[in-house]
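Annex B, item 7. Sequence and structure tokens for protein A, then protein B.
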Amino acid sequence: VQLVESGGGLVQPGGSLRLSCVASGFTVSSSPVSWTRQAPGKELTWVSTILESGDTWYTGSVKGRFSISRDDYRNIVYLQMNSLKPEDTALYYCSGPGSVRGQGTQVTVSS
């Protein structure tokens, strides 16, 4: 199992980014895939999950702003992030079976 995240960057408050998680070694439609994040000096926290059924779940602070989705053909999971806030600044990871994580992609929200 391998996961590779990309799409992070520097964005102004109110801006948008779309993160991608390219999966190999398993199919994203057959396992829950989650996004987590770790802000500087803080613990890793859960952000969102997409289940095999396609059902999606979000932590309260991102509901209505973030959207998780997947492309079963390309075996990619996305995290669309809108209305970004400075407190969304963190290293974002995706995780799959066995809690395997990628190397992360940095998101910085700052003016």
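Protein B:
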Amino acid sequence: QVQLVESGGGLVQPGGSLRLSCAASGSIFRIDPMGWYRQAPGKQRDLVVLIRRGGTNYADSVKGRFTVSRDNAQNTVYLQMNSLKPEDTARYYCYGAVGYRDYWGQGTQVTVSS
């Protein structure tokens, strides 16, 4: 069983930055892939970034602005979000898979507004 707990969301002005954290119970070494999705009101949940042992895939909409990192020692994955835009407003969910089982966090809200 894997538990994922997000933190770091909040309200930020356009152009600002936030860093989200996803803390996993136990070692994250066995979780692959791992990443972030987001869901805006009335829309489907979309991929933001997925990090695998073989590489990292970012959604085109966040390339050059968001950076994912993984700290195996801290069992944590981070999402550094820079140059935030109003269209980045959504609930952000941490995702991980172990074998064929998918795990999700409860989400953290990010609101980009002036």
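Comment on protein B: The radius of gyration is 13 Å.
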